[in-house]
Amino acid sequence: MKVIISLMAYRTLTGSELYTYELARALVKKGHEVMIVSNLSDVMTELHTRTKSAGIDLLDFKEYDGKFKPDILHLQHLEPTKEFVSVFPNIPAVVTVHSELIFEQPFKAESIKKYVCVKKAAKEAIIQRDGIAEEMIEMIPIPVDFERFHPGITSKIRKPQGRKLVISPMTVDWLRRQCIFDLIHRSFEEGFDLWIVGAKLDHYLNFPLPAQVKWFDAVWDIERFLAVADETAGVKFGKMTIESLACGKPSWVYDVTSDGMLNGRMIALVPPDEEMKQYDSMAVADRFIDLYKSIL
Questions:
Q1: Is the CB of residue 182 less than 8 Å from the CB of residue 190?
Q2: Which of 137, 150, 164, 166 has the alpha carbon at shortest distance from 234?
Q3: Distance from first CA to last CA of the chain, Å, rounded?
Q4: Domain-located, residue 153
Q5: Could you report the per-residue pLDDT of 92-114, keeping only the tens digit for each?
Q6: Which end of the chain is more exposed for a tag (fewer CB within 10 A), N or C?
Q7: Is the model's pLDDT at 140 over the cut of 90?
Q8: Strand 262-268 to strand 251-256: parallel, antiparallel, or no bridges (unpaired)?
Q9: Whole-prediction pTM value?
Q10: Around Cβ 192, how many Cβ atoms within 10 Å?
């Protein structure tokens, strides 16, 4: 099959982009032709380089000329969805909904045959808030590369001795701002070291970081950091949380509202191996292939 996957932006090492990369990579390994169309940056990023190295076609919205004729549209986010269902009104589409937050509110169109939710809360939201019929929804989890993320990872990174280390691979933006503040506060209260690893999209910490907190820019091989963590911290049971669990690390999961306010925190313990199998990239790709075939 020929598949176009589109999302609002494809530049940085963060949630939707890494979800798209991992799904596209698995589909290509299964023998399908995949093109990612999105807003790219003016310079080639590491994500772009790795995408092309994986055999995935990559184009900016302004460069897409319609010559690549897809069998299936796999869409994310409001504007790309509106654009592609108007350009290809007769091509069946599926739409991934990543969370229950209001900015994930899905577009409705006749050519959209299925909405794929990665979390139960997202499914409940688009039924109750957006009026999507339950039979239009498929639950398919976030894909994770188990060849990279597993308990046997070794790392040359040296962790602090004698103190618990919490690592938060978290893009630093307005949505996660209060989570970062809470983590820093807890690092004082509970006496642990905190390492934050992620792109700083918002420069709002106008004070020196305390001695027990370190900030690293986003890295591709985040598994090197997860290998030395005692626990991790993230938002909304996303890709980072699942990758942490795959590495055998319990994870703090923050719940936030659509305006970035804290709405609670839970601890996700490492589940049995059998339960983790659902997140394997190849298994997730198989489920999408079956879904694509069912709507063609």
A1: no
A2: 166
A3: 10
A4: no
A5: 999 999 999 888 999 999 999 99
A6: C
A7: yes
A8: antiparallel
A9: 0.94
A10: 17
